[in-house]
Design a protein that fits this description.
40% of the residues lie in helices and 24% in strands. The chain is α/β, with parallel strands linked by helices. It has one domain: Vaccinia Virus protein VP39 (Rossmann fold), CATH 3.40.50.150. The structure holds S-adenosylmethionine (SAM).
């Protein structure tokens, strides 16, 4: 799948994504609290792959500004509806892909990418781009669905059979699962020092990584 197909897939999914309950609420709240603990009231934050904006709306009261972007216009439409309903003024939602925030040379105190890095077409280019928009000493906080270390029949069935069939039917986006250990290395190679790592169990493991821009 290419980026425009992915944008169409996620836009089509957006209303259902917004209506579905969060699968692992404890995991979500834990991630939110850990993330908030790294943010300060005067921070300018970038969130990429923000979906329907739920996390940005919860973080907004704790920071100065958030620019929250997503590849899918359908997701941003819902995010803007929610922002207007809640009367939140310090968020700007915009349609943009993960490697597309450097136009104005703006840099951010914190960059968030929750449930996104396994979906981007080029992880290294994305990390390089995100490093370029994070202030030195700023934080990059990600949560990423990863491949299990070692052989897992469940992962083999999901990744090699179920996902390709779903993709052929237009019911799954592009994905590229890597090991958690590999993800750490790639984040470090992108110009960050890792501060915190934790794994959350699920159908596949989700790795939460907080890293500081060097
Ligand atoms: C699994 S959802 C996660 C949404 C939100 N961050 C969350 O944690 O609920 C993935 C989101 O990433 C967006 N996305 C997928 N590929 C992207 C890309 N290359 N650049 C930016 N956003 C992308 C999708 O449109 C979707 O809204």
């Amino acid at each position: 799948m290419n980026l425009s197909k992915d944008a169409a897939f996620w836009s089509k999914t957006a209303r259902k994504y917004a209506a579905d309950p969060i699968r692992n609420m404890d995991g979500y709240l834990n991630t939110l609290e850990r993330t908030k603990s790294y943010l300060k009231a005067d921070d300018n934050v970038l969130e990429i792959g923000c979906g329907t904006g739920s996390t940005a709306l919860l973080i907004a009261p704790h920071v100065a500004t958030i620019t929250a972007s997503d590849l899918a216009p359908g997701m941003i439409e819902i995010a803007n509806e929610k922002r207007a309903e809640e009367g939140v003024e310090n968020i700007t939602f915009q349609v943009a892909q993960a490697q597309d925030h450097s136009q104005e040379g703006t840099t951010y105190d914190a960059v968030l990418a929750h449930n996104l890095l396994h979906l981007v077409p080029s992880l290294d280019q994305t990390l390089e781009h995100l490093a370029s928009v994070t202030k030195p000493g700023g934080v990059f906080i990600s949560k990423t669905v990863c491949a299990p270390e070692g052989f897992s029949l469940k992962f083999f069935l999901i990744n090699s059979i179920a996902v390709p069939i779903m993709q052929a039917l237009g019911k799954a986006p592009s994905v590229n699962f890597i090991f958690g250990s590999e993800l750490n290395k790639r984040i470090e190679a992108g110009g960050f020092e890792i501060l915190e790592v934790s794994d959350q169990a699920g159908i596949l493991v989700s790795r939460y990584v907080v890293a500081k821009k060097l």
